[in-house]
Design goal:
- Helices cover 47% and strands 18% of the residues.
- It has twelve helices and twelve strands.
- The protein has helices spanning 10-19, 31-37, 74-81, 98-105, 145-156, 167-188, 194-197, 199-218, 226-235, 242-248, 259-269, 274-294, and strands at 2-6, 24-28, 41-45, 49-51, 54-56, 64-67, 88-91, 109-114, 117-122, 125-130, 134-137, 161-163.
- An eight-stranded mixed β-sheet has the order 5-2-1-6-7-8-11-12, sandwiched between helices. The chain has a four-stranded mixed β-sheet with strand order 4-3-10-9, with helices on one face.
- Strand 3 (41-45) and strand 4 form a beta hairpin.
- Helix 3 (74-81) packs parallel to helix 4, helix 6 runs parallel beside helix 10 and helix 6 (167-188) crosses helix 12.
- The chain is globular, with a radius of gyration of 18 Å.
- The chain starts with a strand and ends with a helix.
- The mean pLDDT is 96.
Length: 295
Amino acid sequence: MRIQIMGAGALGCLYGYLLQRKFEVVFVARGKQFEALKRGLKVTGLVEDFVRVNAVDRPCDADITFVTVKSYDTEEVAKSLRNVDCGIVVSLQNGIGNEEILSTYLGRVLGGVTTYASNLIDYGWIEFAGVGETFIGSMDGKICEDVLVVVEVLRECGINAEAVSDIVRRKWIKTVINSVINPITAILRVRNGAIVEIEELWKLASAVLREGEEVLKAMGFDVELEEVLKDVVTKTARNRSSMLQDIERGKRTEIDFINGAIVRKAEELGIDTPYNRALLLLVKSLEKFLTKCRS
């Protein structure tokens, strides 16, 4: 079986590294990351290793394709995957809407949610920062054969994986949690733990969370997420969020697919979300400021 990692960044490289234990894995990357991976992949953190990998700069045929690119690149990736037999396509991306974009161009698209943590230290070098869980499901709620195949492949490589019928709910819950952690840490340039360590930040986090909960309840999802948020922040206290890493590198963030998705859904439902809207505008302003500073 051949597995393709579409977007070999921090998370993509971690999954590729773990899957390479049992299967043929192709890492699709570009630019400096592609050049570095041609020399090999360094893994530190929970494991210390250096492995040779099969790095390419364009998609190829595969039995399973894991999509781990930034959400704003999803459409470009979907178009490129049309040109190959990409097999089962699994989105392990942040935010809302990626599966819908992929399904516009491709068949056999599944959703995924993971709490495994990985940081990109440098090109060709990741830190395995945390073992978590991975949930795989069809967007229509059916646990089909493709879902079972992907879960079995992940489990065979020692990845904690589960087939679920509520992947849409799980993706929205993760997005609400990310809508708190990611923009706050990115704007203030702090690690996740600051959110529970600083009283004023926890008050802000709670206000953002309440807006997300209100939206989810209006969608029919009965949720109480304060303890979930506190648990995630505590377990990842030393981590730098993906949005913080993007800001540190002067890159575009996924804010439109996280807080932006919550704001858009809230507007559809007639709900006011001033805290989410403020964080959305602040992060987008920060992106433009950093772009201006580089020019």
